[in-house]
Amino acid sequence: MALRFIGIDPNTGQGESPTVWVDEQKNELVIQGWKPGPELKAECSAFEAPGHAKGIPDHEAVVRIPARMVPILRRACDAAERTELR
Fold first, then answer.
1. Distance of alpha carbon 68 from alpha carbon 61, whole angstroms
2. 19-23: strand order across its sheet
3. Which of 7, 36, 37, 62 shows the smallest number of beta carbons within 10 Å?
4. Strand, helix or coil at 57?
5. Residues 6+ apart with CB under 8 A from 83
6. How many CA atoms lie within 13 A of 13 on its CB side?
7. pLDDT tens digit at each of 86 positions of the chain
8. What ranges make up the beta strands (E) of 1-86?
9. pTM value surpassing 0.85
């Protein structure tokens, strides 16, 4: 795996560090965030949309990251697009 660090929550405190990387081999974003509480998990599990199975499969996860990280996510998306164009 070729992870390229993109950014970390600018308000990171001790032990809490939502982070974003790009996997340049797989052309994927890798995101570290806070685990959801039971209310968010339940809300996500209740989500229904055409073509979307209800619930969160065991091989998937939901994480929270702060909105202040949107610029970091944009940089990660740009980096992933550039990787794809190689």
1. 21
2. 3-8, 19-23, 28-32
3. 37
4. coil
5. 22, 24, 27
6. 1
7. 689 999 999 888 776 789 999 998 888 999 999 988 889 888 888 887 777 778 888 888 889 999 999 999 999 999 888 876 66
8. 3-8, 19-23, 28-32
9. no
